[in-house]
Amino acid sequence: xxxxxxxxxxxxxxxxxxxxxxxxxxxxxxxxxxxxxxxxxxxxxxxxxxxxxxxxxxxxxxxxxxxxxxxxxxxxxxxxxxxxxxxxxxxxxxxxx
Length: 97
Description:
It is built from 2 helices and 5 strands. It has helices at 24-30, 46-58, and strands spanning 5-9, 18-22, 34-42, 61-71, 81-86. A hairpin with an 8-residue loop joins strand 1 (5-9) and strand 2 (18-22).
C-alpha cells in the first residue's frame, strides 16, 4: 500500500483501537463517486464516522448509510436507514428501557 489514508476508531465490539486504511489507488476509485455505506449493525456510530472520514478524504460523495440493525439509541437517528431495531439487554436478560 502506498499513500495510505488512515483513521483510528474505537468500536464497542473491540477492546483496542482499530485502524481503517485506504491506499491512494483505492481512494482514486472513490473520487467523485456516489458512495453508499453498508454495514451490519450501528450502535454508537464510531465505525460509521471513521468510514465517512475515509470516504470524504478520498473525495467520495456519501449518498446513503444503511444497516441491517440499529442498536439502542442508533434507531433514533434520522441520517441512517436500517431494517430493524436491535434492543439493548440488561445482564439479567431483560430489555433496557
